[in-house]
């Protein structure tokens, strides 16, 4: 089992991955990771900082109510996206919320996500869209509404706002965030050329969902850690 410092290092790596993949939005966006031996404690990116600025020292710890219990930096006010999903989904260990630009643009079309390429097949079981508000999720009732919309899925679009991915591991949450943004980009390109005429069949899309297996998630995460290191 990883110690606290190792967990924080890994979470900081996740932030840098999201940033290098274009999902940073200045100081907005956040990622969390449960503490395995104490699932009611959750490590979270600090508010007022960029994803690429995450370090083991500036990560804050919150509880399941969204209260900061340790750390010298401020807590994000959209903490309830994370805590309310984790409250009802004990299988979820990590949550990502970013303002991924292509996903935000795609959500404005009001169209279902199609499997234009492999990334879209990752969401062949459906991609919920949260439409109760396009504003920030700054209260427990709104966080609970997002969790209800997510249900047993592992990703959703916040209409005109961003994405939420929920992983049984940190690697899974990051993987889903990256492939969701790529799937939205692919469909937007197809839409700009008149719309996709040929897409993967529903049956084949479900079969292709094997691309989301844990091995691929771990390989992608580790590759991205190395890629970030090469560019620093």
Look at the structure and give the CATH class: Alpha Beta
Percent strand: 15-25%
| Number of structurally distinct domains | 1
The CATH topology label is L-fuculose-1-phosphate Aldolase
Unreliable stretches (pLDDT < 50, length at least 5) are none
List the strand order in the largest sheet. Answer: 4-3-2-1-5-8-7-6
Query: So how many helices?
Result: 8
For the termini, the CA-CA separation is 28 Å
Going by CATH, what is the homologous superfamily?
Class II aldolase/adducin N-terminal domain
Number of strands: 8
CATH architecture: 3-Layer(aba) Sandwich
Oligomer designation = single chain
Largest sheet: number of strands, sense, barrel closure: 8 strands, mixed
SS-derived structural category: alpha+beta
Helicity, as a percent range: 40-55%
Q: On the 0-100 scale, what is the average pLDDT?
A: 97
Order of helices and strands: HEEEEHEHHEHEEHHH
Rg over C-alpha atoms, rounded to the nearest angstrom: 17 Å
> How would you sum up the global shape?
globular
């Amino acid at each position: 089992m990883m110690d606290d410092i190792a967990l924080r290092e890994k979470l900081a790596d996740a932030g840098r991955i999201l940033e290098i993949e274009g999902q940073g939005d200045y100081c907005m966006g956040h990622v969390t990771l449960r503490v395995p031996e104490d699932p009611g404690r959750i490590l979270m990116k600090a508010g007022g900082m960029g994803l690429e600025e995450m370090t083991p020292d500036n990560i804050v710890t919150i509880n399941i109510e969204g209260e900061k219990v340790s750390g010298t930096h401020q807590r994000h006010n959209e903490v309830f996206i994370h805590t309310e999903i984790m409250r009802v989904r004990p299988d979820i260990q990590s949550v990502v919320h970013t303002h991924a630009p292509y996903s935000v643009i795609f959500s404005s079309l009001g169209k279902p996500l199609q499997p234009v390429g492999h990334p879209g097949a990752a969401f062949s079981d459906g991609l919920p869209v949260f439409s109760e508000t396009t504003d920030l999720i700054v209260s427990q009732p709104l966080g609970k509404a997002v969790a209800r919309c997510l249900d047993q899925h592992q990703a959703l679009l916040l209409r005109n706002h961003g994405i939420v991915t929920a992983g049984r591991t940190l690697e899974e949450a990051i993987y889903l965030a990256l492939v969701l943004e790529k799937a939205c980009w692919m469909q937007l390109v197809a839409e700009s050329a008149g719309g996709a005429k040929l897409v993967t069949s529903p049956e084949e899309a479900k079969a292709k969902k094997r691309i989301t297996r844990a091995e691929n998630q771990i390989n992608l995460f580790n590759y991205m850690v190395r890629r970030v290191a090469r560019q620093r």
